């Protein structure tokens, strides 16, 4: 059963129908999080059962357990946030990993999509590298 507002937003070209999850002092903000059909229907980020986002966050050590998509609002508790990145950068990234731009002192990383529709591009290595970089940053303080 489709959500009328999700369908209307999609028809109008509004890809980012989920609320940004942002708070002061976040360590990592994931950008470019346009809702897919299942996420829009469930009103939760990365809600498709085959999406790798929640699993790889935990595997990379960014969350202490594997969160469910409906728990996306808990991400700031772990220093993480979500928003639409292309609007901020004004460009697509050139390659995976750290990007040359910074937001203040915050590094920007481009990561492969965890979406099941992007299986042909999936590589968890950049996600694990981000987890290692975040761990190293935490250990410096």
Essential attributes:
141 residues; 5 helices; alpha+beta; 4 strands; disordered N terminus; Uracil-DNA Glycosylase, subunit E; two-stranded parallel sheet; two-stranded antiparallel sheet; single chain
Description:
- The protein is α+β, with helices and mostly antiparallel strands and 141 residues long.
- The protein has a single domain (4-136), classed as Uracil-DNA Glycosylase, subunit E.
- 29% of the residues lie in helices and 13% in strands.
- The protein has 5 helices and 4 strands, in the order αβααβαββα.
- It has helices spanning 4-11, 37-42, 53-59, 85-89, 125-139; strands spanning 28-30, 80-82, 97-103, 106-110.
- The chain has a two-stranded parallel ribbon.
- Strand 3 and strand 4 form a beta hairpin.
- The protein is globular and about 40 Å long.
Concise synopsis of the structure shown:
The protein is α+β, with helices and mostly antiparallel strands and 141 residues long. Helices cover 29% and strands 13% of the residues. It has a single domain, classed as Uracil-DNA Glycosylase, subunit E (3-Layer(aba) Sandwich), CATH 3.40.470.10.
């Amino acid at each position: 059963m489709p959500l009328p507002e999700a369908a209307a937003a999609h028809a109008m070209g509004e890809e980012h129908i989920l609320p940004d999850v942002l708070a002061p002092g976040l360590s990592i903000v994931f950008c470019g999080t346009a809702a897919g059909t299942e996420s829009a229907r469930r009103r939760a980020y990365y809600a498709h059962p085959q999406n790798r986002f929640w699993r790889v966050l935990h595997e990379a050590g960014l969350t202490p357990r594997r969160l469910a998509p409906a728990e996306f609002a808990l991400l700031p508790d772990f220093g993480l946030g979500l928003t639409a990145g292309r609007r901020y950068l004004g460009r697509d990234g050139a390659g995976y990993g750290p990007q040359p731009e910074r937001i203040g002192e915050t590094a920007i990383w481009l990561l492969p999509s965890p979406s099941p529709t992007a299986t042909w591009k999936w590589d968890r290595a950049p996600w694990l590298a981000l987890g290692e970089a975040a761990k190293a940053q935490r250990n410096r303080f």
